[in-house]
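Appendix B.2, paired examples.
Example (i):
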Amino acid sequence: QVPVVESGGVSVQAGGSLRISCKASGYPFSTYCVGWFRQAPGQEREGVAAIDHDGSTSYAGSVKGRFTISRDNDANTLYLEMNSLKPEDTAMYYCAGDALTLDCSGDYLMAVGAWGQGTQVTVSS
């Protein structure tokens, strides 16, 4: 695992907004494909979003238009802005990254594995 500090996970009402972050250290963050995947209890993991070193992004269909992924390379930090949250967005969110891929996506990073312990997002109806 890469040393990271994940933060921002809280409980919110449906329709609300939240930003979670993942600050990494010890790696050339700016050259990595980085992103998020999530897992709800009793459910399979789902790739959420990814952003490549050139700033190109990809999103799962379930979050497209509601979530925005971004990165601050100077701060070695990855963000996920989540709007119009739904109860089905409730999950543990994990950040991940990889330096050697032509497929920068949440699904790919899900296979690579989490950098940290995750941050819990709970959306109540």
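Example (ii):
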Amino acid sequence: VQLQASGGGLVQAGGSLRLSCAVSGRTLSNYGVGWFRQAPGKERELVSAISRSGGNTYYADSVKGRFTISRDNAKNMVFLQMSSLKPEDTAVYYCAADKSSWTVVTTTADYDYWGQGTLVTVSS
């Protein structure tokens, strides 16, 4: 499975961005997907995750009410809509896929495949 994240960029605080994760090599519906981020000097953290069917989602407290994860299994795409962005959202964002669970996966070590990151910079 290959994952390709895109959609990062520079945005002012309060603005919005939509990240995309294109999945190839396997059928997306066989995988749970998570969005992670890593800011300079900090550990990688799970931002949001979605189950195989899309019926279950998870959001970190820091992004609840501002970020929305979705997936289009027919197009093999997963999205992260980010709104009301804050400078502290600045990080490299990664998407990852889990092959084992039918529900939302919140443990970093359980993800099997990772894409390269896309940089999100939020200016104040």
